[in-house]
Each structure stands twice: as C-alpha cells, then as structure tokens.
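User: For my dataset I need records formatted as: sequence, then structure tokens, nothing else. Please produce one.
Assistant:
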Amino acid sequence: MPSEKPRILGIDGGGTKTEWVVVEDGVEAKRGVLAQSNLRLNSDEQLAQLFAVMPHDVSHVGAFLAACATEEDRRRLTRLARASWPAAQVAVGSDRDSALAAAFRDDDGIVVIGGTGAAVHGRREGRIEKAGGWGHVVGDRGGGYDLARQALREVLTRFDLDQRITPLAERILRELALNSLHDLAAWAMDADKMSVARLAPAVFAAARLGEAEMLGVIEGGASVLATFTRAVAQRLAWPEAHVRLFGGLFAHHEDYAALFKMRLSTLLPGAQVEVCRESGAVGAAWLAGKRSVLRAQGSMPSEAEQLAHALTEQSNPRSLHLDKMSAQEVVDLFASEEACVAEALVARRVELAAAVELVGAAMSAGGRLFYAGAGTSGRLGVLDASEIPPTFGAPPDLVQGIMAGGVTALHRAVEGAEDQREAGALAVLQRGIRAGDVVCGITASGRTPFVLGALEKARALGARTLLLTCNPARERTGWDAEIDLPTGAEIVTGSTRLKAGTATKVVLNLLSTAAMVRLGHVAGNRMIDLGISNEKLRDRGARMVAEALAIPYGEARERLEAAGWSVRACLERARKP
C-alpha cells in the first residue's frame, strides 16, 4: 500500500539492464538491477514479470524504458505499470527522458548516451533534437555493441591478413571460453546484441595495452558521438551547450570520455562537458515525483552486516602464516583441513536424509530440481545439472541450474549479480518454475540475496524449497529443508571455493544421484541409461554389460552395439525369455 509520505519507484530500462531505485523523503531507500527492458524487444509478459519482482509498497512509479517513442508505446507502458501498481500514480516515457532528468533535472542541456547503444539528445527552451540511436543494425554508432562488433571484425581481418592471433583475440576467446577464431565466428553469428556489447571492456583494455587497431575503434566511436553532439547543438543554435556524458561507456572508461572531450573541443569549443554519474533510475524517480536531489544513504545494509559474521568469513588460525609456508606445509594443511568436509557431512546426516527424501519424492511425482546460486555455489549447481543427461540419460530439463549473472558468470565474475533478491525472483518466474518442483538455494554464507529471492518466489509459486549453506550460525528461515554444513573457516579467509565448495559439491552429487536412482536410472550400481558418445564410454558400457551378464568383453560389445549402444536395452534383451 502507498505510504503517507511519497515513496517513489524510478525505473530506467535499457538494452543491457534495468535499473530501479526507491526514493522516500528525498533519500534513496533501495536500488536494484535486473535484466533488459526494451519496449520493442520485450513482450507484455516479460515486462510484467520484471515489474512483478520490484517493490510494490510505493505511491508513485516512473517507468522510462528504451523504445518508448510513440503515444501508443506510452499507452502500452502505462497499462502495464498500472496493472502492477494499481494504487500508485504512474508516469511513463523513454530512457531519453530519464537520462535528461538524471543529467539536468528541469534544466536544458545535451545528453550523450553511451551504453549498449548510443544516441545524442538535446533540449533547449522546450525544443528536442536527436542524432543517432537508430538501433544496433543500422545505427547506435559509438555504443558498446558498435565498438565490439568493429573489434571482432578487426580481429578476424588481422588473422586473414597475416595469420596473427592478437592479444584481444586471445582475451575474447578466454572470456567466452572458446577454442579458436572459427568458434568465435560461429558464436558471433548467433550472439544477441547484449552478448556482443559485453565484449566492449576487452576492447578498451586492448587499446590501453597499445593495440593500434583497437585504439582506432574507440577513437572512431568517440569522434562520431562528438560529431553528433555538434549537429544537435547547431540545430539548437547553442554553441556553448551544457553537455553531459551518460551511460556505462563513459562512467566506466575515463579514456572514452577523454577522447570525446578532446574531439568535441575542436568541433564545439564553447561546450561545457561533464560525465554524469547519476543513474537513469534516479531521473525516472525525479520525473515521477518531482523530488529534490537525492542524499546518499550511509548505513550499511543489514544483510552485509550479517554476512560479516558468517563462519565462512572468519579467519582460520591454522593458516595465519600461509604466505610463509613451504610447499609441503601447504599440502599438509590442505589435507588436514579437507577432513573437515567429511566431518561436516556426518554431522548433518539427518538433514541430508530429509533433503534426499524431499527431492526424491518431488521428482518421482513429476517435479524438477533447480539449483539457484551465485559465484562458486552457482557454478557447482550448473555443473551438477549439466552432468545429469550424459550420466543418467535423463532429459536436460529434469535438473537445471540458475546462475546469478547468467552464462557469463560461469567463467568470470559479473559485478553485483548476486546482490539483488529481485533478480533471483525474476529468474524463477522466467524459468517456469511451478508447484511440484524443488528449488535448492546454494549459498555458503546463507545470506546471498539472489538465492533468497529465488527461494521466496519459488515458495510463493508452490514449489518445495531447500537451502544449502556452510554457515550453521545463521538464523533458521523456515524452508522445507535446510542444511548448514559446519565446514568452518577457510584456509584463505572467505574463499568458499575451498572447503565449502568441496562439501557443497558432495551434497549436490548426493541429491541428484539419489533422485536418479529413485527414478530408475541406476540398476544395482550401474548407470544403465548412460549416454554413450565416445570410445571411452563405449568401452565402459561394454564392461558393464560383460559384468552384468557374465559374458566375455567382445561379446558384450557386440551385443551393446546391436542394441544401439543402450546399456538398458542390451540388458533387457538378454533377460527376455
């Protein structure tokens, strides 16, 4: 319900992300980051799901999304916003409006937007002028997608000309976990706009390391945006325009802002240029409530305070002098500390059995198992889920991993991915989790907001919930099953990829394997539905058949091949009367 004081939700949606902020009495109370929201690219259902996980105890809502350009667009966005916040006053518009408000409030000026896309918008005495921003296929010059696309072309051209793999090419292959430029070309054919744009930081890094082609790419992007800015200023008859650089390319890459300023100083010498550090969501909130400039919130979030007290964050007295130890001492320390993993598992035998029963019963009734995690925990969940189809012949949707930050976070950290409860809730909605499924939240500290948000939404949808942590000191939270493994402080303080990661991997192995046994994918201790896809697995399957039927290896292999390399089919044929 709306509060007595105005409580304003500002939403700024773009091609890469959606930022939101809640403002109360001129103070930022809460903020978050979710997936993209482009009125042209997102369906009503997708936008409704996005809105559903944002705060709803607000009196005003300002929703300003990319591609909201026409009166029909504004009517559509108004309808969607009012459906989600029926009691709130709603203001809508484009991300251009929120960017101008973030940069200038009611004052006039020119805002140069440099994010996934790029555009220049100017306002003077009620008149609006624009340059760029025609979309990534034919426009958006100077944006992250445009820079990354040009860089990819340069990488491949350099290889075509002199068979040279540039440092940028090596970095891109590493970041995408690809093995060759042929793989990169195939990836680029199917990659979406956001995936390509995420390579822009690598382009800037290459330019800073002296790759001339990449320096040329970013100089070209800055130059074209400066040229667009001069064109807008000329149409507004404003040679001394106030110019604000807005968006991630300028906020995170000072060299891009510097190149723009240098170029504009020759094209429009009288212009006054600054980088705008304000979020577009703040501009959206200001437009919704016409609030004053926000004051920064100074208190430490309670979840962060709680995390600081988690056992996984404490210092291990046995490794205080780790940096001074010999190789043998380090080996002995790791070996002795890993014994804590077995002890932790034994200490939680009862809770583990309850979790096995919960998961097995749900999956026997047609439910699916989802792991939700961030960082190491999320990667372990995705890994366990990915191994179920080849190991047990189960369909890939039966066990799934939900990773904070998506596929990118599997091989490199994604800043802030784990900090948003709303992002976890949205992932649960968009992955189609329903009553009868099981969601296992994995968080070593027990505090990760993304995981808790996923569990809360799963419970609201009627799914069963399971929390796996390595922090027995936390408060119990009432999920269907809870396992807190007492693995203790890590050898490297806070590095939960160590003992906590090992213990977590064992538990996930236990949960999924026990469920597959219950579903009949194991006979005795044999993987009878093993997916046989290479010579090693053909050999393993033949040995299983030979052992099960007490026949020579050669005969077993012949029978297995005749059964289409299906161990189950081979054994069933042999046992028919």
